[in-house]
C-alpha cells in the first residue's frame, strides 16, 4: 500500500516538473487582426472572440511566397523575450518571415501552449492554424513552407501542430521539448513529417529517458530514442549519418524518407533544460532550426 507521505512526495515532484517548464537561457472563422503593433510590441488577432497577441518580424524587401516560421515560447514565457533570441536575425539573413505568438494563461495563471494538455481548455491548435492562414494571405507567404518551432512547451506544441494540422504546418523543430502524452497516444493518425529534436542529456525538466511526470498531461511519451525511432519508421528514412559536432554534441541525421522527409536528433551531453548555443553545438539552436527547415 502506498503511504500518504509517498503520495504527497509524488504530487510535489509532479508539480515541480510542470511549474519548471520555462526557457532557462477547418476554420470557418479565420479571425481578424490588427497589424499595427501596440506600445507593448504585440499585434492583435481575434480568434473565436478572444483577443490573441503575437510579435511579427518581416525582413525588408521580403519577396512574395517566402517561408513562414512560428517560434513558440516555453511555459511561463513571453513572446517578446523569445523575439530577442536570434530567430529574427536568421530571418533577415535568409529571407523568411517569423512570428512569435503569445500563449494564454492556464488554470494557474501561467502563459502556456495547450499541446493537448490538461492545464486549460484553450484551443491553441485552432488559434495557431488560423493565425498561419491569416499571415500567409496578408503577407503573401508560402502555404507550402510554413513551419513550427519552439522551446520546451513550444516544442510540445510544435509536435501537436504537425500531428493535427499537417495541412498547414509542414515540419517541426523542438528545442528541449518532446511529445505530450496525448500526442504520443494518438500517433496512429500522424502523417510523415520532417522532425528536428534538440535535447540536453542532463535535462531534468524534460528528461530524455521519458520519465516526465504525467501530471497535467505533460508526460506519457516514452524515451527520446523510442520517439525518434517512431518518426524514422513513419517517414521511412533510408539513410543514417552520425556526426560528432563538438565535444558535447552528437548529431543523428536520418534522410531520404517519404517525400524527402528527414529526422534529425541533436544530443548535447551534460546539458540541462536550457537552449544550447554556439559554444555547445558549434551553431546556435535558432540557426540549426533554419538549417533544417529550409530543406523543406
Structural notes for this entry:
The protein is α/β, with parallel strands linked by helices and 296 residues long. The chain has one domain: Alpha/Beta hydrolase fold, catalytic domain (Rossmann fold). Helices cover 29% and strands 23% of the residues. It contains 9 helices and 11 strands. The protein has helices spanning 4-19, 79-82, 87-94, 124-138, 153-164, 181-185, 224-235, 278-281, 285-293, and strands at 32-34, 43-47, 50-57, 66-72, 97-101, 141-151, 172-175, 195-200, 239-244, 249-255, 263-268. The protein has an 11-stranded mixed sheet with strand order 1-2-3-5-4-6-7-8-11-10-9, sandwiched between helices. Helix 6 (181-185) links the parallel strand 7 (172-175) and strand 8 (195-200). Helix 4 (124-138) crosses helix 5. The N and C termini lie far apart (53 Å). Mean pLDDT is 90; it is low at 1-20 and 22-34.
Topology:
Layout lengths: L3 H16 L12 E3 L8 E5 L2 E8 L8 E7 L6 H4 L4 H8 L2 E5 L22 H15 L2 E11 L1 H12 L7 E4 L5 H5 L9 E6 L23 H12 L3 E6 L4 E7 L7 E6 L9 H4 L3 H9 L3
Parallel strand pairs: 4-5, 4-6, 6-7, 7-8, 8-11
Antiparallel strand pairs: 1-2, 2-3, 3-5, 9-10, 10-11
Amino acid at each position: 500500500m502506498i503511504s500518504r507521505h509517498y503520495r504527497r512526495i509524488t504530487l510535489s515532484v509532479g508539480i515541480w516538473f510542470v511549474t519548471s517548464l520555462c526557457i532557462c537561457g477547418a476554420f470557418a472563422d479565420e479571425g481578424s487582426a490588427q497589424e499595427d503593433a501596440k506600445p507593448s510590441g504585440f499585434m492583435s488577432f481575434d480568434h473565436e472572440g478572444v483577443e490573441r497577441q503575437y510579435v511579427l518580424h518581416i525582413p525588408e524587401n521580403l519577396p512574395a511566397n517566402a517561408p513562414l516560421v512560428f517560434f513558440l515560447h516555453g511555459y511561463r514565457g513571453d513572446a517578446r523575450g523569445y523575439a530577442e533570441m536570434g530567430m529574427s536575425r536568421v530571418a533577415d539573413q535568409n529571407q523568411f518571415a517569423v512570428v512569435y505568438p503569445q500563449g494564454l494563461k492556464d488554470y494557474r495563471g501561467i502563459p502556456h501552449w495547450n499541446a493537448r494538455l490538461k492545464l486549460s481548455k484553450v484551443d491553441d491548435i485552432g488559434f495557431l492554424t488560423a493565425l498561419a492562414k491569416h499571415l500567409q494571405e496578408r503577407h503573401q507567404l508560402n502555404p507550402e513552407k510554413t513551419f513550427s518551432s519552439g522551446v520546451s512547451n513550444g516544442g510540445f506544441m510544435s509536435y501537436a501542430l504537425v500531428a493535427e494540422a499537417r495541412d498547414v504546418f509542414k515540419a517541426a523543430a523542438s528545442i528541449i521539448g518532446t511529445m505530450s502524452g496525448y500526442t504520443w497516444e494518438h500517433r496512429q493518425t500522424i502523417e510523415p513529417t520532417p522532425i528536428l529534436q534538440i535535447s540536453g542529456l542532463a535535462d531534468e525538466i524534460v528528461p530524455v529517458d521519458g520519465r516526465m511526470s504525467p501530471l497535467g498531461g505533460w508526460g506519457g511519451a516514452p524515451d527520446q530514442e523510442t520517439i525518434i525511432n517512431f518518426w524514422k519508421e513513419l517517414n521511412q528514412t533510408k539513410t543514417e549519418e552520425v556526426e560528432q559536432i563538438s565535444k558535447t554534441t552528437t548529431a543523428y541525421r536520418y534522410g531520404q524518407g517519404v517525400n524527402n522527409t528527414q529526422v534529425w536528433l541533436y544530443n548535447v551531453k551534460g546539458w540541462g533544460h536550457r537552449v544550447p548555443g554556439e559554444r555547445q553545438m558549434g551553431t546556435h539552436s535558432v540557426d540549426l532550426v533554419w538549417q533544417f527547415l529550409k530543406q523543406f
